[in-house]
Structure formats: C-alpha cells, structure tokens
Amino acid sequence: MSTGMTSRERLQAVMSGRVPDRVPVSTYELVGHNPASFENREPSYRRLMDRIREKTDCVRMWAPSGLARGELDGGTGGIGHFLTAADLPHECAESREGDKTVWTYTIETPEGPIRSVRSKTAGVETVWTEEHWLKNGDDISRWMSIPYVFAPPDCSGFGADEEYLGDAGIMLPDVSDALCTVADLFEFGEFTIRAMTETVRFREMLDAMHERVMDRLRYMLARGVRGLWRHVGAEYASEPYLPPHLFDELVVPYMRPMIELIHSHGQKVRVHSHGRLRNIVEKMIDCGADATDPCEAPPDGDVELAELKSRYGERLVLFGNMQLKHLETETPDQIEARVKDCMAAAKAGGGFVLMPTAAPINVPLSPKTEENYLRYIDAGLEYGAY
Fold first, then answer.
1. Residues forming beta bridges with residue 112, ordered by sequence position
2. What is the pLDDT of residue 81?
3. How far apart are CA 208 and CA 283, in angstroms?
4. Cis before residue 360, ω within 30 degrees of 0?
5. Which domains does the chain have, with CATH numbers?
6. 295-352 pLDDT per residue, tens
7. What does the pLDDT read at residue 73?
C-alpha cells in the first residue's frame, strides 16, 4: 500500500489500476485551483473553497479560451458552439427583465437567419437558453448551410493552468462529442423527436459536426493539452430519452474514434453520463472508456453503485455518486452516512473516486450546503483510508 501520496499521485494511481493510500475526494465543479471561477471570487464560498484546497483531490475541468462549449463569444450567442470560424453577419440585442439580463442573437446564414435567446439571473451563476437555434426543418437547412472554417481553439493557457495546479490534482480537459453539440441546438424535446423520427437527417448533422470535433481534438492534443479527458454527450442518447439502439447510431460511431485518438496520445477518458447507465455502460466500455461519472443511483439513475463496482469495477474507474440535491437539503449526519455507504459500495480494491454529481450555482452559498460539503469532505477522508 502506498502512503503519503500527493493528490496528483493518488488520482494517477486510481487511473492506473493501483490502490492509493486513500480514496480520492473530489468536489467536481467546485475547483479550488482555478482562480478565475466564480466560487473562488465569491465571498460566501471562501470558507468552503479554502477547505477544498486544503483537503481534497482536484480534478480540474479545463476548456480552451474562445469557442468553448456554451460560451457567449464575440456577441454571437455561442456561434463558437457551431465550431466554425466562418464570418457570418450577426447581431446581439441586450435587454433587462427585472433581475434578469436577456440576450437575443441573430445570425444570417447563407440560407436565411436563425435566432437564439439566452438569459442570466442575478445570483445564479449559469446562463439559460430560452430559445434554441433550431426550431424547425428550415432552421436545420440554414444551419447546415453555414460553411465550415476550422476555428483553432486557444490552448495557450493550458501550461500555466497545469503548473498552477501542480501536485494538487490532475487536469480534466473537456470535450463534447457531435451529439452533445448538435442536441444543444434544439429544445430537448424537439431534439429527441428529430433523433427518433428523422434519424438519417440527424446523422447528417452529426457527421458534419464530428469532423469539426475531431479537428478540434487533434489540435488540442498536438499542442500539449493532456490529462484525464472528460467526454460529454453520451447521456443525450440514454434512456428514457432515446432507446438503446439509437445509442449505437448516435454515440458509438463518434465516441470510439475520439477515445482512440486520445488513447493514441497515451491519455485516458472519463465518459460523463447522468441518469440511466444499465443499457449503455457496456457500450461505453467497448468504445474504450476508462472511467465514468457521476454513477447516479436510483431514482436518478438505474444502477446502484455496488452493482456497477461488482460488474464493471475491473474495467472502469467510477466517479460518484453523492447527489448535489442531498448536499443542499439533508443534514450533515445524513451526508456522512451516505459517504460511508459509497465507500462500502465501491472503495474495495481501488478504482473509485468520491465525487458529487454536480455543484451549487447559487450566490450566496447556503450555510446548509456549506456545512454539508464540509462534512462530506471530512467523512470522505475518514472512511476512504485503505
């Protein structure tokens, strides 16, 4: 058994199939070693973030500057989400509705305009999409008419961010597959209907986007972006949204070459997928996945953590499965009991990282949530020792 590991060594041990000195404890999107993130600039989070830096094992999510997934770049409402540098006429109108800021974006494609509306409410650190880009067949044709011009992502900050992290953890570069990127262009219900009833047309959209995703991924790898890659998109084709046979059509052909490319650079991949895993986890492994998160238990998912460990623990590192809703609503004693249960279910033999399923976005941070996170960390350290 190893002792006295740094957080980097501890996480690397888990990902290499070795048993570390204790189970790594992650706080997921609450990243203590990213000074630019809101939680490290918001006073109500200060006490918790100090504890996170002191006690936990950082898996730092990272995306390039510019054209990042979901980013409002250059006043175009996420044209970067299309992964093209095509020079298209566009405009942005900003308005206020009480404590909410609303942006209305219009882009002129070669076949006509498409529009999206986004908003942000004061005290909530996220941007909501109120109207998606694609609402009908005409919008799809207009989107398909947008020319593809490679948009090189800005990877210049990766080295400094990795150096800043140091031995406190490992980097988690974020990469969305074609399904994630295309599905987000639609309202979710509209996406599922199109995917099921117009699958051939939907595959044409995915094929077009996959070329862009792969070009972007090659570029990032060639410029030294490295770590445990976070693959996003599989959950869009999980049950109950889509049947398993569509996972084979809409995810597998695109996931496999992405993972193969990352593996060819000597790196590993963690597939992110909320919800039901039972009928897709084997497919993820067949595509080469090295890990998965957040391993949600019923009723949010459909497989208990102990079953995932028993069936797949030799082939897949498990990250999870403390629900954020419990951290926000339960008592510290209940949180400690849940941490203890997680360890009993998945700790044995390594291959497990304790992690919440999401992170709070409210400002100020609730005192109840803060106390529960502090107990979560302490319990993880207590029950995670080998």
1. 109
2. 61
3. 23
4. no
5. 7-66+152-383 (3.20.20.210), 67-151 (no CATH)
6. 999 999 999 999 999 999 999 999 999 999 999 999 999 999 999 999 999 999 999 9
7. 40
HSE toward the beta carbon, residue 261, CA cutoff 13 A: 20
Q: Using an 8 Å Cβ cutoff, are 289 and 271 in contact?
A: yes
What's the CA gap between 239 and 242, in Å, rounded? Answer: 5
> Using CA atoms, how far apart are residues 275 and 225, in angstroms rounded to an integer?
29
- What letter represents residue 114's amino acid? I
In SS3 terms, 198-240 reads as: CHHHHHHHHHHHHHHHHHHHHHHHHCCCCCEEEEECHHHHCCC
Q: Determine the pLDDT at residue 260.
A: 98
Q: Would you state the pLDDT for residue 3?
A: 54
Look at the block and give the residue holding tokens 């008592």: 331
To 5 degrees, how large is the angle CA 101–CA 106–CA 110? 165
> What residues in the chain have per-residue pLDDT under 50?
1-2, 67-78
Question: Helix %, strand %, coil % for the chain, to 5?
Answer: 40, 20, 35
Using only C-alpha atoms, what is the Rg of the chain?
21
Cis peptide before 332 (omega within 30 of 0): no
Predicted model pTM: 0.94
Q: What tokens were used for 384?
A: 């995670």
Whether the Cβ atoms of residue 166 and residue 224 lie closer than 8 Å to each other: no
DSSP category for residue 21: S
Q: What is the pLDDT of residue 82?
A: 81
Beta strands (DSSP E) in the chain are 58-62, 90-97, 100-109, 112-121, 128-131, 169-176, 228-232, 268-272, 291-293, 317-322, 352-356
> For residue 349, what are its two tokens?
């033999």
At residue 285's C-alpha, the angle toward residues 190 and 25, to 5°, is 90
pLDDT of amino acid 70:
34
Of 57, 165, 59, 28, residue with least CA distance to 384? 57
